[in-house]
Amino acid sequence: MPLIPEEPQIHESVPGPRATPAAGRTAPTPRPVPGPGPRPAPPRGAPASSARPGKPGPPAPPRGSVAAPPAPRDGSPEPSADRSGTAGAQLQLIPAPVAGAVDAADEAVDLLLDSGRAPGDILVLTTGEAHPWAAHELSFGEASYWAQHDAADDVFYADATAERATGRPVVIVAVNGGTDETTARALPSAMARAGVLLIVCGEPQRINAVLGASA
After folding, report:
1. Residue 155 CA: distances (Å) to CA of 5, 124, 195, 204
2. Which of 7, 143, 165, 205 shows the greatest Cβ crowding within 10 Å of its Cβ?
3. In terms of DSSP H, where are the helices of the chain?
4. pLDDT tens digits, 3-21
5. Distance CA 108, CA 155 (A)
């Protein structure tokens, strides 16, 4: 199931906290728009949803362009938001180099939170090196780390091979390394976990080649 990147469109957005951009990244990465369905607005007077406590790293500069959502596939009905995940989740590809895949995933998370998506709706998976948040939280022990996953009240970051990470409405995969075999296993697994939207951040040629080989 090859993925086709969407043409970016420019939209005004509100900057949010960001992981430090990886070395070698030369241009801003197109960012996804929220998946299908209306998003509830945050309560009046509530703190900004993009401020995620405990996430390491200083804020990054304002973001660049925003990618438009892909058109519905073959007129299929809008997928449900079942947290167990369905095969009907919408796919979106965010082109990014290996070194910039995590940064692109962070930008996708911030845009989703800015749009009103609940933090507990989002799961971020990495195929290579652990996300800085995951590495930080794991330093306090796996019990504390997985307790945050089970609470499901904030964005959760995990390795793509972690079987304990359960489905959420939105799943983001940062293809930031690992073997082609790891990626080939991670993408179908992530699709099964995604209830509404699956976002893949990585090199389109590699992702399509891996998916073609695993088909």
Report:
1. 24, 7, 15, 25
2. 165
3. 101-114, 132-138, 142-151, 180-193, 204-214
4. 555 544 434 444 444 444 4
5. 12
